[in-house]
Amino acid sequence: MIERLPPTTALIVVDVQTGTLPNARTVPADDLLPRVKQLIDAFRRSDRDVSFVVSSGTAAGATEYGPGGRVWPEGFADLAPGIENRDDEPVYPRAGWSAFAGTPLARDFSMQQITDVVVVGLATTFGVESTARAAADLGFNVTVVVDAVSDPDPAGHERSVTRVFPALGRVTTTQDLVGAL
Asked: Which helix H or strand E contains 172, and what residues bound it?
């Protein structure tokens, strides 16, 4: 069981969007979306910050998959069905690996005196892990909700959940996290 989280805890919902939803394989979308929604609702009830980050393309620079700087097609970055932000909840488009790369998220959290972040979303080994790593590097206390993250690769997901996330912060479940708010 995780200890009670301070009121300066924010939820970061990473890439829970139309274009990435097919990558929800280790935790199927039918299980992932209700858990993410439950966490969003719990953060709202406890008057804590909720921020959404969506992949809008790729960063500049060539990779083994081709040239960088690609922009995803229209509709790709729309929040997944049933996941909606309120007017006071920002949606940060990003082309970098982390929710903090190329977005004002770190600045906004600093202004709001956020000390702890809870990370959920897609994909475990891409945006979620990159965001958790960056958050730890920036000095935030990091919690990853392991049943509210998913990836197309079971082995990669398992490695992140059992080896990487415990080294970056805490891991917990949706049920335990909601109880800690």
From this structure: strand 170-172
- Three-state DSSP at 162 gives helix
Residues 33-89 have pLDDT tens digits of 999 999 999 999 999 999 999 999 888 888 888 888 888 889 999 999 999 999 999
Helix (H, G, I), strand (E, B) or coil at 108: helix
Instruction: Measure Cα distances from 5 to 59, 115, 116, 156, 177 in Å.
Output: 34, 10, 8, 28, 8
DSSP structural state of residue 127: I
Residue 7 CA: distances (Å) to CA of 10, 114, 160: 8, 8, 27
pTM of the predicted structure, to 2 decimals = 0.96
170-172 vs 49-55, strand pairing mode: unpaired
Do the Cβ atoms of 15 and 53 come closer than 8 Å?
Answer: yes
How far apart, in whole angstroms, are the C-alpha atoms of residue 79 and residue 174? 20
In a 13 Å sphere around the CA of 41, the CA atoms on its Cβ side amount to 10
CB atoms within 10 A of CB 64: 4
